[in-house]
């Protein structure tokens, strides 16, 4: 049967009889659309080969992911100090023995490792990592990236690019070639969170800034942002903020946000991504695994969205308790785009709850998930989990609409899935960020 283009269906004013799905056909139509649609991953910590050792991949990196390190310290008697004194390989061995041999991996992060091993046809119950190490050592990175993207069903990942990270700065300064599979993001944590230290780094890069964020300094930060915008061509600017974030605030950070970052985003027509709710380093002994979560005051979002209607905000909040308010604000402000179920929220039970709430309150006008992958192969399990969680939620939503009397077609389902996994992100960043 030849498919009727969706435009014709809409312009004819009624849906052709043969296109209507029965209630029983909805589930498979949703699953097919999810499987067929390659996603854009709006936030990761992944990098193309040109970034060298900054881009992490392979079994030792997978096992020493900080989500797994946090779990390791719960199951092992090893002190953090002893763990940090080991080589990466020894750390990975310790985590494998503890979480995968002595225990069945049932946590979200540990199941992820199993799914990755299985995707590459590797043993999931081996007593050591020799087979997996040999496999990864044999891969050539460019081909491996293509394979991982294919297995994960993604076309494009958005990076996290810190212009004040000494290693990364060097890569950009040396003039790195644009790789369409990896889109840049200008990450501003150091500037917007702890201006008391990084201002000296800007001085070293040749900007006339000071610790007080004076008027001259703000102009110079604009110049810094323009220079980095030209160098990186980012798809948005971004910052991760603590649960205590307030706006407006008469602090250097508050002034930098209002008078340098927001105007620069307007000038370059870029959204600003705000990831709010981290309580940094509540346990510094476990390093990257030592951050926690706190409920934020989302009046800061209200003030930003209302007072800066010309700016677009991509927002993810870390606390489960903030999720409903975020949806309410998205209903008030069309310059606000909720995205992802971030970090401690990225567990099926919580993703399900948040996604249902978003669909009920926002329809398809949000970006349901990003992977936050730090290690390349994590894309495989994180996107598999996202599709698996989305399938019953979408199915139920369409069944309810169907029960209430709206007929639904495969093409419409495909259009919605395309919005959720791709075009909302493309539209919001203003970039057609990748080929399909
Ligand atoms: O999820 C994570 O890995 C966190 O440590 C952070 O990277 C967070 O996603 C961030 O981008 O700040
Ligand atoms: Zn992240």
Structural class: alpha/beta
Distance between the termini: 25 Å
Overall shape:
globular
Number of strands: 9
The sequence of SSEs as H and E is HHEHHHHHHHEHEEHHHEHEEHEHEHHH
Helix content: 40-55%
| Hetero ligands | D-arabinaric acid, zinc ion
What is the arithmetic mean of pLDDT?
Answer: 95
| Rg on CA atoms, Å | 23 Å
Beta-strand residue fraction: 5-15%
Largest sheet, in brief, is:
6 strands, mixed
Q: Which ranges are low-confidence, i.e. pLDDT below 50, for 5 or more consecutive residues?
A: none
Quick synopsis:
The chain has 436 residues and is of the alpha/beta class. It contains 19 helices and 9 strands.
Overview of the structural elements:
Helices cover 51% and strands 8% of the residues. The protein is of the alpha/beta class. Strands 4, 5, 6, 7, 8 and 9 form a six-stranded mixed beta sheet that branches. It has a three-stranded parallel beta sheet with strand order 1-2-3. The chain is globular, with a radius of gyration of 23 Å. It starts with 5 loop residues before the first helix and ends in a 7-residue tail after the last helix. The site of zinc ion has 4 residues, from loops.
